[in-house]
Amino acid sequence: MAGTSTSIFSGPVGPNNQPLFEVNRPEFGTLLLATTSGLTLVAAKFADSRSLAVLILCGLIWLGFPWLVGFALTTDTRLRRWADNGATIAIFGWTLLPVLAEAVLRGLGSGDAPEIVMLVGLQNSVVMCAAYAHRRRCVQFAAVGSSFLVLYAIVVSPEPEVFVLAGLFGMMMLWWLMVRYWEQIRRTHVASRIDRCLPVRTSVLGLVGAGVVIASATLWTTGGATYVLRGFMPTSGGDDAYDEFARSGVGDGDALVAANNDAMSFGPVESDLFIESDKPSLYDMFNDMYGEPPTPPKKRVRAIGLSPGKLKVTHQKIAKTQGGGREFSAVRRRQKKRDRNLIDRKSAAMLFVVGDVPLHLALERYDTFDGREWSHSDAVGRHPTLTMNDEEGRPWLHIVQVNEYTQTEVTDKLAVKFINLKTTRVPSPPYLESVHVDKVDRRDFFSWTADGVIEMPDRDQIPELTVMHLQTQPINLTSLRQSDFTQKYPRIRSKPKGSDDSAASELSRLIDRHLSLPRVGEITEKLAKEWTSGIPRGWRQVEAIVGRLRDEYEHDREAMAPIDSENVVEHFLKSGRGPDYLFASAAASLLRSQGYATRLASGFYAHPEKFDRLSGQTTVHAEDVHVWCEVCVDGVSWVTIEPTPGYLPPPEDLTLAQRISLAWDATLAWAKQRAALIAGVLGTVIAAWFLRTAWLDRMFTAFFWLAGHGSARRRLRATLQLLEWRAWLCGCPRPPRMTVRRFYADHCAGLPDETRVQLGEFLTAVERILYAPNSPTSNSSPRTSQLCKTTARALGRSLLSRRTQSGSTPLLTDGA
Amino acid sequence: MKISPTASAVAETPCRHQDAIDKLRKALNGALIGKNDVVELVLACLLARGHLLFDDLPGLGKTTLAKAVAKAVGGVFARVQCTPDLLPGDVTGFNIFNQKTREFEFREGPVFSDVLLADEINRATPRTQSALFEAMAERQVTIDGNTYSLSKSFFVIATQNPVESHGAYPLPEAQLDRFAMKLRIGYPDPRSELDMLAAHIGGANKIRPEQDEVVIDPAQLQQLQDHVSGVAVSESVRQYLIDLATVTRSHREVSLGVSPRGLLTWQRIAQARAHLQGRDFVIPDDIQHVAGPVLEVRLAGDFEEGPKITEEILSSVSVPVFG
Fold it and tell me: Nearest 5°: CA angle at A624, between A621 and A625?
């Protein structure tokens, strides 16, 4: 359409009939500028975004589509006219689309604060306007808008990436302004009149006036700055309004509770005030989660010895809230639902974990199982030595415990922030190696509990908001798999006289304790033997038992063992379902029956799903209490195993080569299991690839028959489309600069005369519908149908590929 | 049998002037043996009311063809042999004082004809060449303040010799743009030359006995030209023309692209070519087929091979098909 094209490329022309000003052509300089500003905004949102994937995906969509529009505007097809005619719709639609997207995202659990949504709308309008940079108003708005976006990003974000992008934008903007300046100079010299598309003075005055009127009206009608502030900052928090997606709060809010930035300033010191709270203690949490034991615990022993002064003051409170039990009943009953009008909200966070998840944090350990209850024997075990060392000015409590399986070169770091957990015990991840609490440099602040957990004695609890840094040295499971580690158990069958207190006999007794089983355990032993038969003794047998439990048994918190059950593990193994403590008990019993020393561990499970990318930490709630199992590998070191399906085992720390090797083995095993399926799929894919032209041609032909029904016009178009597809399939599509007649007439040599005549008729009919759309098509439908069929049959793939290989005809004939 | 890339297979609504066109084609083909393509382009130029510039060596049939055109359309034929001493008045005519009547009388020049052959036009001075401007563009001349209309079917066939450049005045771009196309006849193929030689044995041309017949009168020609101007050009084809013209204006080797007047001429020639092919609508093949002669006369720049530039220009714009 000549008119549209003229409007696009309008403007003064130079001596060569070319438009003088490149700004009147679709150009990408402004689009690049606007995209940079959009990227700057994305970088500013990076730190605050809840979902990185959503942020990147939205960024790609919001900034990518205008580029497609820009490219469409440079083509010489009808697409350009559509894109240009739909400029208003595109700009407004793209501006408003983020609001719709936000509604969808919030439905999916993600989303942004309203002010961010508005900014994204502005960003979209800027970038889309930049795609229409050949329009003067659009290019002006794009430049101003992108500058605003970058300024906003600089103000709100301290991220270095934002400043880098802003610097880049600044340089680009400088260049852009220079280009615009010189174009303006040229325009002034060449054109006698400069058309102002926007009355600048009137616009500015009008905008300022409108702003004053709106502000005055708002202030007058709302009556106060506070109210207005709330109106303008509907999600800022700090008042009645609360938005889950608010970026920050005024005075309070989630960020403060999360102790994101300066939690270390709340270090544990003697003068800390411990506020009594009605939040559940560890034991309360277990009872809430699993129900209560049918009989109350035999005894409760306070794990913390308090100084007389403190004991005097807080005696009653502590007895109620900080009791550390030494039994864990595997027979429990769900509490009756209390008829309370509970508010449906998340429980308060117990801990925050900064580090890799999933993570098992042990608080209690049990070594003795009588078939119904786990307990810890009174025997005081020999625990690794604790030493306090200074590392880079920070005091670290080291657990001197090295064995041949420890990967001394690998150290994982994590931090635990105490929020509502009231205990003196250090939540211990597997393979704990050292502990650091800021400014706590005294060795006697830490000690071992009888069941093998590090605690901070002589206090009511580890103070709230304490940040505890932990280091672990993982066990190398690969080397563990290569040998029977039980050979390293210190076993003294004949007790030498006078050697009861020796370390060896003590360790031997410890192992015996962790191998003891209740009497009734036939199924346990039978199943364990069955599951481990044919598997070399050692860690592979442990993995086999754990794997069978995870694969074949169902995790069901409601499936509890009967009260009168003598051996809950037997019942669990029969029923095939149960809660996690039964999984852990079963795993421990099964392994013990095969001579592997095990113990039960209870504590918290930091779930990967609760990782909050915004704060970089994982929240651990009361409902995250969990019970699992640990296996002794050398009498000293314990390796965590996770028999409960749904809970991920501790991630194995592997070298790259080990990872590749494991992945290769796993792939091979997977492939062996599905050999027939894979062979079938591969064969199909290979056959589909080699026969691609044949089946694609048949598919296109089928489409041709489907699309060709109806008018003669549609049939002709469908046939031509089929020919075009076929030529493309043959690898020699019609060059876009070659006419239809010239291209397809070239393929007629060798065809019978009658066919060629029909092909000529077909081409004429096609040309009529393509280039004389208003003229009536006189081809009767049967004749057209016959022409189309003949053409589709005659110009098959073989003919098209044979002829196109001989080269194309030049566009011009020599006659000219 | 072979389908020509540009031949139409079916003319669904035969034109009532088809007989006249066929006769015209036959007459010109009889005059210029073995040059069907050139004859088709000459016919297209004639039907599009364009003027023709032959740029070729002597003795290839330029004058013969011009005479054949003049005879065929039944109009007045005039010839001007351009030389450096040719004056503008010698072309347009002049006022002479009649001593008997004591008044100035206007003596018409060769432009007052239906077909004017300006032989070796590049030998005339620029002043004389310019005298043809008004005649070619407006089909009228103004002498001493009086305007005289020319024949409505006024058709200029100019020739120029590209070899002998001494004493020649290259045609200015402004005048070149007034020609619809520039053609080269070229040597005939050996078989055609054999026929030609045989035909002239005995002093009579046996091949073209009807060469002196008038096959169409000027009034019919005008009707035909009016009819041709109504051949449909779809929006996509018009856009294709514009895109091609845009490319000529931005081509790095072309300093002077196609002007709007040139664009109109291109469209008219394409319409005529479509009509000659028996179609009542223009297809991109028509545009491409006439692109060479149409562009060669009006593209100026730092290039030597016109066909190559034309090929580049045509290759840089997609043919509209489904869009």
Answer: 120
Touching A: B residues 152-191, CB under 8 Å: 183
Helices (H) and strands (E) in chain A, counts: 27, 21
Give the closest residue to A587 by CA, choosing from A547, A625, A639: A547
Please report residues of B whose CB lies closer than 8 A to that of A18: 249-250
- Residues paired with A621 in a beta bridge: A349
Q: What is the rounded (10 degree) CA torsion for B207, B210, B212, B216?
A: -130
Q: Does the CB of B229 have a partner CB in chain A at under 8 Å? A: no
Amino acid at A501: D
Helices marked H in A191-242: 200-222, 225-232
Give per-residue pLDDT as tens, B274-284: 999 888 899 99
What are phi and psi for residue A180, nearest 5 degrees? -60, -40
Q: How many CA atoms are closer than 13 Å to the CA of A59, on its beta-carbon side?
A: 20
Instruction: State the pLDDT at residue A12.
Output: 35
Q: Does B2 touch chain A (CB under 8 A)?
A: yes
Chain A contact set for B322 (CB, 8 A): 717, 720-721, 770
Whether B2 contacts A754, CB under 8 Å? no
Show Cβ contacts of residue A7 under 8 Å, excluding neighbours closer than 6 positions.
none
CA B21 to mean position of chain CA atoms? 16
Q: What are phi and psi of B40, to 5 degrees?
A: -60, -40
Closest by Cα among A5, A259, A33, A39 to A139: A33
β-pairing, B300-301 with B254-256? antiparallel
Which helix (H) or strand (E) segment holds residue A447: the answer is strand A447-448
Is omega for the bond preceding A160 within 30 degrees of 0, making it cis? no
Q: Compute the average pLDDT of residues A177-193.
A: 62
On whether any CB of chain A is under 8 Å from the CB of B251, the answer is no
* Cα–Cα distance list, A627 to A620, A630, A647 (Å): 15, 10, 10
Q: What's the rounded Cα separation, in Å, for the pair B314 and B307?
A: 10
How far apart are alpha carbons B244 and A287 in whole angstroms? Answer: 83
Q: What's chain B's length in residues?
A: 323
Mutate to test the interface with B, among A739, A761, A763, A790 (most CBs of B within 10 A): A739
Contacts of A245 (CB under 8 A, 6+ apart): A50, A106, A111, A112, A113, A235
Is the pLDDT assigned to residue A282 strictly greater than 90? no
Number of residues that make up chain A: 816
Contact call for residues A480 and A539 (beta carbons, < 8 A): yes
> Which of A718, A723, A673 lies closest to A697, judged by CA?
A723
**According to the per-residue pLDDT averaged within each range, which of A143-147, A174-178, A758-762 is highest?**
A143-147
Q: What is the 3 state secondary structure string of A554-597?
A: EECCCCCCCCCCCCHHHHHHHHCEECHHHHHHHHHHHHHHCCCC
Task: Tell me the ipTM for this assembly.
Answer: 0.80
Cβ atoms of residues A616 and A386 within 8 Å: no
Nearest to A297, CA basis, from A373, A363, A370, A371? A373
The amino acid at residue A284 is: D
Helices marked H in A47-86 — which ranges? Answer: 52-74, 78-85
Q: What is the helix (H) or strand (E) element at residue A548, kind and residue range?
A: helix A539-552
Q: DSSP letter for A618, please.
A: E
φ, ψ at B263 (rounded to 5°): -65, -45
Give tens-digit pLDDT for A334-349: 665 544 444 444 457 8
Over the Cα atoms of chain A, what is R_g? 38
Instruction: Tell me how close the Cα of B306 comes to any Cα of chain A, in angstroms.
Output: 11
Write the pLDDT tens digit of every residue in A76-115. Answer: 667 777 888 888 889 999 999 999 888 888 887 777 888 8
Q: How far is residue B66's CA from residue A56's CA, in Å, rounded to a whole number?
A: 72
Residues 6+ apart with CB under 8 A from A240: none
Query: Using 50, 70 and 90 to split pLDDT, how confident is the model at A237?
Result: very low
